[in-house]
Amino acid sequence: MFDLDKWQEILGTMRKNKLRTFLTAFGVFWGIFMLVLLLGAGRGMQNGVQREFGNEAKNSLWIWQGKTTIPYQGMKPGRQIRFTNDDYEALAREVPGLASLARRNRLGGEYTLNYKTKNGSFPLYGANSTFFEINGETVLKGRFFNPNDLAEKRKVMILGRRAREVLFGDSIPPIGKYVNVKGVYFKVIGTYELDGGNGRREERSYIPFSTYQSIFDTKRRVNLMGALAKEGVSAAQVEEGVRKVLAARHRFSVDDKQAIGINNNEENFKRFTGLFAGIEAFVWFVGIGTLIAGIVGVSNIMLIIVKERTKEIGVRKALGATPWSIISLILQESVFITALSGYLGLLLGAGLLELMSIGIRQIEKSGGQAPYFTHPEVDLRVAIAATIILVISGAFAGLVPALKAARVKPIEALRAE
Amino acid sequence: MITLKQVHKYYSVGKNKLHVLKGLDVDIQEGELVSIMGSSGSGKSTMLNILGILDDYDEGEYHLNNTLIQNLSAKKAAYYRNRFLGFVFQSFNLLSFKTAQENVALPLYYQKVGRRKRNKLAMEYLEMVGLSDRADHTPSELSGGQKQRVALARALISQPKVILADEPTGALDTQTTQEVMDIFKEVHRKGITVVIVTHENEIAEQTDRVIRLRDGIIESDKVKQEELTVKE
Ligand SMILES: Nc1ncnc2c1ncn2[C@@H]1O[C@H](COP(=O)(O)OP(=O)(O)O)[C@@H](O)[C@H]1O
Ligand SMILES: [Mg+2]
Fold this sequence. Notes:
The complex is a heterodimer of chains A (417) and B (232).
Chain A: H1 4-16, H2 18-53, E1 60-65, E2 83-84, H3 85-94, E3 98-106, E4 113-115, E5 118-120, E6 124-127, H4 129-135, E7 138-142, H5 147-151, E8 156-160, H6 161-168, E9 178-181, E10 184-193, E11 205-208, H7 209-216, E12 221-222, E13 224-229, H8 235-250, E14 260-264, H9 265-308, H10 310-318, H11 323-365, H12 380-407, H13 410-415
Parallel strand pairs in A: 6-11, 8-10
Antiparallel strand pairs in A: 1-13, 1-14, 2-12, 3-6, 3-13, 4-5, 4-9, 7-10, 8-11, 9-10
Helix pairs in contact in A: 1-11, 2-9, 2-11, 2-12, 3-8, 9-12, 11-12
Chain B: E1 2-13, E2 16-28, E3 33-38, H1 44-51, E4 59-64, E5 67-68, H2 74-84, E6 85-88, H3 100-109, H4 115-128, H5 144-157, E7 162-166, H6 174-189, E8 193-197, H7 201-205, E9 209-214, E10 217-223, H8 225-231
Parallel strand pairs in B: 3-8, 3-9, 6-7, 7-8
Antiparallel strand pairs in B: 1-2, 1-4, 4-5, 9-10
Helix pairs in contact in B: 3-4, 3-5, 4-5, 5-6
The complex binds adenosine-5'-diphosphate (ADP) and magnesium ion.
């Protein structure tokens, strides 16, 4: 159904009416361009916030040691609370709604991780498997700890991406190699990646918690614990249980919020999801506004164009143009212009976002960071849908007056100024 | 070729009906050169528009080439305008964004004639009206007389049976008026029926038959004597 002659007629008309063509095209172009930028900026903000939040499990909490601030059962405030394996076991036993429990200690003092001649002063941690579940590390190569590693206190190690880079470079596969820390050799079984913290989180290396305690800390101390709530149980419920058990064991008031520190990720996440919803609503609000402005603009121009062309339509009819040829001439021109300029707006908007993305990546590589903004990107389906809506509404806006113009008697069309 | 039987036309002005054509009876044979005269407002344009199927009428019958022109579909009307009729307006009605050649070629576009052939024919018709050197000019670059000659070429290119012209020289000076009139006469010589609305006697004198309208009624319908003798 491609009618070359008709297209030549349309292109000819467009070329000879440059201002009109430009005005229509620019309205659509600008609408889509702004919409794409807006959607991209909104997504960039969401990604930025998401990055601050990292990959932590949403229904979890962290528990760390603090000092009492409220006098309790005759004891003065200011007492340091210290966790041990007994606390860990008590929590696992007594807190209702708990899916699993994590613990992690950090090896203090001066030391380096060594592989042959390479070394790096990266922190070493002991942790159990649940820890990674809550903290959000993902395996790059190899595996994380299995129950046997922990039960048999195996000397195995998991390396962060950055630590692996420094110790092994790009050419040596780290799995199966031995890393020496304070004279103890650990076999590397896996590597991980973890967003956030400017890559500092990927400098860490982990050994099984049981191994850690048996080699570096014989006092059975536990510095940080994490709790993962069961499906359907809120982190707040678990937090309450944790507080109650620990308060009873260490004899501090349940109301003493400083005695132990608890960071409830669920609550953080709720704040973030609220923020996300806010950003999303804002983007949609402005986006739909932009789209409506575009539709109104295009419709207006189409109305004016058809009015302006009434006389031309009269002439064409006097020369033997059928109503359908008039309607299709106007509609095809309108659809062609709006679709092309919408596509251009889409292309340029997406291109600009990509450039921004590249620029931001460059900045992030060199250690900088734009606060709460990263990887602006646009959902192409939304952008394309918006373009189609604009094209259709432009065509529709042109259709009504075109139908009318095609229906009037030629002599009336000719009388138009 | 053209037969009007008791044709009436009303315009509605506000709530009133204005009776503009009050029962016209006209019979124009193929190949005639006819002028329609009458004072301003007598209904000349209205009549010509009806003949050109640009407007419709309220009562009576109009036969064009033995076809009753009544309640035609828009498509049929377009077909007759395209195949049988060529219209020339006082105000030219050229498309300002098209060149002379493109304007002339336009009726052939609606006949689905190929582009190459269209342009070739348009050139030939421009040559016929003596404007082949202005083919690439837009109407704004042409004088009034040149514009009307382009409009004539456009009316002629579809090889219509009837050319209808509404005061084609109304906007032209005497010199160019005669140039345009010469073309009409040449068209007439080729056997095409020509109907010219005019209020200029010099024009009417050059036609074979003069129909005078007054207030929507045919006041007189005179065929020139010498022409009659030639015919007989
Ligand atoms: N579109 C119209 N609406 C109402 N009245 C009209 C219209 N066109 C013409 N008339 C009236 O009809 C009468 C005949 O007009 P017209 O045919 O243009 O006359 P002429 O061409 O002989 O000057 C005039 O009185 C004019 O005012
Ligand atoms: Mg008139």
